[in-house]
Amino acid sequence: MLIHGVGVGRNAVVGPVARAHPVPVVLANVPAPLDPESAVSALTEVIGEVSASLRARADAASGTLKEVLSATAMMAADPALAKGAAAKVRSGVAPARAVWDTAESFIDMFKAAGGYMADRATDLASVRDRIVARLLGLPEPGVPALDRASVIVAEDLSPADTAVLDLDLVLGLVIERGGPTSHTAIIAGQLGLPCIVRATAASDLHDRDVVAVDAARGTVTVGPDEETITAVSMRRQALESLNSDSGPGGTSDGHGVQLLANIGTAEDADRLSSSAAEGVGLFRTEVLFLDSTTAPTLEEQAGTYARALDALGDRKVVFRTLDAGADKPLAFVNQLDEENPALGIRAYRLVRTVPELLEVQLAAIAAATERTGGSPWVMAPMIATVEEARDFAAAARAAGIGRVGVMVEIPAVALRARDVLAEVDFVSIGTNDLAQYTMAADRLRGELADLLNIWQPAVLDLVASTADAGAELDKPVGVCGESAGDPVMALALVGMGVTSLSMSPASLPGVRYALRRHTQERCREIALAALSARTASEARAAALALVDREVRDTLALD
Ligand code: PEP
Ligand code: MG
Q1: Are 87 and 114 part of one and the same domain?
Q2: What pLDDT shows up at residue 159?
Q3: Same structural domain for residues 219 and 291?
Q4: How far away, in angstroms, is 234 Cα from ligand 1 center?
Q5: Residues 73 and 8 in one domain
Q6: Residue 261: phi, psi to the nearest 5?
Q7: Whose CA is nearest to atom 4 of ligand 1?
Q8: Residue with CA closest to ligand 1 atom 6
Q9: How far apart are CA 274 and CA 508, in angstroms?
Q10: Distance between CA 321 and CA 305 in Å, rounded?
Q11: pLDDT tens string 95-126
C-alpha cells in the first residue's frame, strides 16, 4: 500500500510504526461509579502507574525530554491531585471526570499565581491527560515511550511535542494533517528527520507496521518490498556521502552563497557546532518559549542566547525577535480569542500592546553579545511598512546591536523593498509567510498546499524584485523560508540574486552539492525559466529541465 502526502526534506527511512495518540475527551455525562470505594482504589492505582511510568521515562531520557518528563513525573507524584479526585469520586463523580475537574481547578490556580507556578500548568495538564486516558482504557496521549527505533505516526503533533522527541529513537515522522510549512514540519526538518505531512491515509497505520518513508517523493510505503528497501538505503548513502563536503557554499565558478541553518533552541546551536553550516540565518527565538506561561526574563533570555553564540563561535548568527502569534501562539502575550490571528497583533506588531517584550529581548541579545564577544545580526518578523522597519532599526541600534534587518514576509514590503532596505542593513525573505499572505492561504491548511506551492509565480516575482532591490542598494538579501532548502529552488534563488540561503540543517548538504554543480550563469537561466512560467507546476518543470542530470538523480528531484 502506498500513502501519499507532502514530503519535508530529501531523505528516506524504513522502520516500524509507533503511533502517537490524541488527548482524550471526557464527556460531561459519564455515569457515576456504582461502587465509589473500589473506584477510588482503581483511581489511586492508575495515578501510581502513571507516576511510575513517567519517572522511569525521565530516568532513561536526556536533554529537554528529561527535563520535561521529570517535571511531569513530580507533578504526578503530588498527592493533592489524587486526594481531590478521590473526594469527588466518593461524592458520586466518575473517576475520569473527577480527575479532569480537579486538575482544571489546580491549573486555573497555577495560571493565576503566575511565574514558576504558571509554567507548571502544562505539566499538570499532561499528567491529567495520561491518567484520564488510562481510566478510559485509551492509549496514552502524545508520543509513546519508544523501545526501538521507530517512525512516529500522528494525526498531528504540537510544536512542543516535536521539540521533545527522543532523537536517538525517532527515525521519521508521518503526520496526517498539517502542511509543509507548519511548525511541526519545520521542527522535524531542523532535527533532520524525514517527514511526510498531510498523509491523510496514515490513519490506517498501526503500531509495528513496517513503513518506508520517502520525504523526497512524499510517500509512505506500507510493508516495503526488497527493491524499495534497497532504494531507501541507496538514497541514505548518497546523501550521507554529500555530508563530507564542508566547504563554503557557492556555484561551480566560484560565486559565493552563504549556506546557513535555521534553529529554534540553544540545543540546536550545540548540534550545529560540528556542522558545515556557515552560521545561523534564522534563530526562531519564540520556539524557546512555546511552553512558557510568563514572559521570559532578560537574564533567562541572555543565558540562552549566550549559549547559542558560544556554540557557534565566530560564525554568523541572525536572531529573529519573537514571532509570537497565529501558528505559534505564546500564552503570555497573544490574545487567544483573536478572530484572524494571522492578520492580527502578532510578531513585530506586539510592540503596539507590549512594547517591553521587544525592549527586554533586544537588551538580552545585547547582554549575550557582551558576554560572548559575538556580533549577532538581529531581524524583526512581519514588518509591513517603512516606518516599522525604521522604528525597529532605531530600537535595535539603540540597544547596541550592530547589524539590523527585517524579514520580507508581507507582500507590501516586498513591493516596496527598496524603501525598506534603505532603513536597514539587510533583509531576509520568509517565503513561508510570503506565500501565505500573497496567496491568501493559511499555511497550516494542508488542503491548500497547491496554493502555497513555493513555485507560485506571484511569490517568485516578489522574491525576484526584492533581490533586485538588494543588488541595487548593495545590501544582503537572504531567504530563510523552507523554499531555501529545496535544491531546485535554491538554484533559482541564487539566479535571482539572493545572497544567502538559510534552511533546516539536514537540507544543507543537498543544496551545497546542487550549487557546486552549476555555474552562476546556469542559475540565472534557471531563475529566468521559472520566472517566465505562468503556473507553479510549469515554473518547477522549466527550472528542473535545466538542472544537471546527476544532481537530479542523486537528490531524487524528478
Ligand atoms: C517564513 O515565514 O518563511 C519564516 C522563515 O518564518 P516562520 O516560518 O518562522 O514564520
Ligand atoms: Mg514567518
Answers
A1: yes
A2: 65
A3: no
A4: 32
A5: no
A6: -115, 150
A7: 430
A8: 430
A9: 13
A10: 12
A11: 999 999 999 998 888 877 766 676 677 788 88
Q: Residue 478: its pLDDT value, please?
A: 98
Q: How far apart are CA 207 and CA 198, in angstroms?
A: 19
Q: Residue 431: CB within 6 Å of ligand 1?
A: yes
Atom 3 (ligand 1) nearest CA: 430
User: Vertex 188, ends 178 and 436: CA angle to 5°?
Assistant: 45
* Same-domain pairing of 151 and 286: no
Active site positions, annotated: 183, 480
Residues 344, 384 within the same domain: yes
Q: How many CA atoms lie within 13 A of 62 on its CB side?
A: 4
Residue identified by cell 535545466 is 546
Last residue of a domain, one of 83, 105, 136: 136
Say which residue the cell 514572559 belongs to. Answer: 295
* Cell 546551536, residue located: 269
CATH number of the domain where residue 60 is located: 1.10.274.10
Distance 217 CA to ligand 1 centre (A): 23
Whether pLDDT at 46 is above 90:
yes
- What is the reported pTM? 0.83
Cell 492505582 -> residue: 45
Please state, in angstroms and rounded to a whole number, the distance separating the CA atoms of residues 185 and 194.
Answer: 10
Q: Which atom of ligand 1 is nearest to the CA of 381?
A: 6
Number of domains in the chain: 3
SS3 assignment, position 386:
helix
Residues 410-422: what's their mean pLDDT? 98
In this structure, the number of other CB atoms found within 10 A of the CB of residue 402 comes to 12
Answer yes or no: are the C-beta atoms of 456 and 405 closer than 8 Å: no
Is the CB of 436 within 6 Å of ligand 1? no
Q: Is 264 in the pocket of ligand 1 (CB under 6 A)?
A: no
Structural domain range at position 159: 2-20+142-231
Is the CB of 284 within 6 Å of ligand 1?
A: yes
Question: Which residue carries 550521507 as its cell?
Answer: 240
DSSP helix, strand, coil percent of the chain (3-state; round to 5): 50, 15, 35
The residue contributing the CA closest to ligand 1 atom 1 is 430
What is the rounded end-to-end Cα distance, in angstroms, of the chain?
A: 21
Decide if pLDDT at 288 tops 90.
no
Judgement on whether residues 226 and 286 belong to the same structural domain of the protein: no
| DSSP single-letter state for residue 21 | B
How far is the centre of ligand 1, averaged over its atoms, from the C-alpha of 283 (Å)?
10
Q: What is the largest CA-CA distance in the chain?
A: 80
Residue nearest to atom 8 of ligand 1 (CA): 432
Cβ atoms of residues 269 and 280 within 8 Å: yes
CB-ligand 1 contact for 430 (6 Å cutoff): yes
Q: How many CB atoms lie within 10 A of CB 340?
A: 7
Task: Identify the weakest region by mean pLDDT among 200-204, 277-281, 327-331, 512-516.
Answer: 327-331
Q: How far is the CA of 175 from the centre of ligand 1 (A)?
A: 20
Does residue 483 line the site of ligand 1, with CB under 6 A?
no
Q: Tens digit of pLDDT for each residue in 204-230? A: 999 999 999 999 999 999 999 999 999
